[in-house]
Amino acid sequence: MSRQASGVIAWLTQRVTAVYLAVFMAYLFIHFLVDAPADDQALRAWVAQPMVTAALLIFFPILLSHAWVGIRDVFLDYVKNVGLRMILLALVAFMFLASGLWGFKAIVIAVIKAGMPG
Amino acid sequence: MKISVYRYNPDVDQKPRMQTYEVRPVQGMMLRDALLEIKKQDESFAFRHSCGEGVCGSDGVNVNGKNCLACVTPITELAQPIVVRPFPGRPVIRDLVVDMTQFYEQYRAVKPYLIRTDPMPEQEIPQSPEDRDQLDGLYECILCGCCSTACPSFWWNPEKFHGPAALLQAWRFLADTRDQATEERLDALDGPYKLFRCHTIMNCVEVCPKGLNPTRAIGRIKDLMLEKGL
Predict the structure, then answer these.
(1) Are B210 and B120 found together in one domain?
(2) In chain A, which residues have their Cβ closer than 8 Å to the Cβ of B199?
């Protein structure tokens, strides 16, 4: 990570992603409160709507980059030992990468299955 | 009136202790006056003070859990029993006297002086009244240290994070139309530590005895970074 990316860019990333998260999560909350999918099939049909698919595909990288800046801040503040901090950051990075790929896979599968009858 | 003060002499004491003194309150008594009364009763008690009117910034202490300047804090405003401790997070030299070296090093690091690349004019560098107004709320800082030693980010990283007092001064020179080192100053502030350990906790705003707002100044620096960077 360049020096530039570690300061103002990280801060800006967190601010900008926060806007998307606030709007999209408010939508998710209201949707599941008012018009929750009745079953697995309905959930997949909802995910397969082009707008929802697109919003979800953007949602995961945005959520994870927001969380990355946040967790990195916590480690910078509280974990003094550089070696330990590196290990923790690497663990979180792998976890986030795996979570992102899993989220991507879940969306793709939902879209494919929604297109199939039954 | 009972005042409990922090006592610690690293040369003699194994560990710090709290000692309670009885002080007779008088009208208009400030906390500094009460500490001077204690000093009369017990000469071994140590604390810093000088001007007695909130200008020199020497007698910053932590009272009932909040940093303040003893000389401008009326004792009538304080909940009893009054508990006086040194600034949190600073190494104690003796009793209420703390080592502020790191605080001054952070101040020095922001280059708190005008930097000119143009040749210096024969006389003064003129400034419009509007330009001068930009410095209000910034130049009044007396470097008492109440803000930085109340800041959790400064507690965790005092050797890397500039802290609110130094960052207020960083903005004071960025905002000054006579200064010509904006780019260098902004470059020096980037990176994860010097500026960006600020998480807008705003303890600094709450405790500043001069009513200044370091958090807003830090926000202005971030805005300027974006303006110049994008």
Answers:
(1) yes
(2) 73
